Amino acid sequence: MFPKQKTERISMNKIFTVMLTAPVLVAAPFVHAAPAQHPAQTQFKQNMDAVLKIARDKSLNEDQKIQRITGYADRYLDYQRISALAVGMPWREFNANQKSEFIKAFKDMVVSIYSHSALMGAVDSQVTMLPKLTEEKNKRVTVFTEIKTSSGKKYEVGYRLYPVGSTYKIYDIQVDGASLVTVYRNQFNELVKQKGIDGTIETVRQKGLKKVE
Hints:
213 residues
């Protein structure tokens, strides 16, 4: 791992745990949801119910739950935009095939490294859907939740979304103000400088960016 401040290490772990199944941690057993006013909040509540049903299904083993939840999350996480924002300026130098390969490798890395902790978090955490919502240009919005872990720690999580037709897609996640795309941008930039684009893709494919505690 490239050097990072301690606060970034903590945030990066939490961000990726949330990212794997963004609707999952919002689907913990004890959810206190504020009345949904915005379509993005309404969709989030629907995600909660659907993913919670999977997480609580005792007929499924862990691998089956992860597979189904990941498939469900694919509909609401914009991995292409997340990848582009995480890589930053060098993304313009990727050709179409390299972009496709990076997106796949990045997603596979996240699923492989964080799937177990994310699923356990879905079972053990308490989540409150906060009533606040911020609106930006181009109909982009951020909805907020508060996650309380089994150890009593609390994290405010913001999900940044934009509309694609009638569906809101997640393109960034913030944990206590630390952004998913920001905390990895410096590392991907450095990898591109050191190893080139194909080398960066291969590093991610081989899970060269390890889980940060």
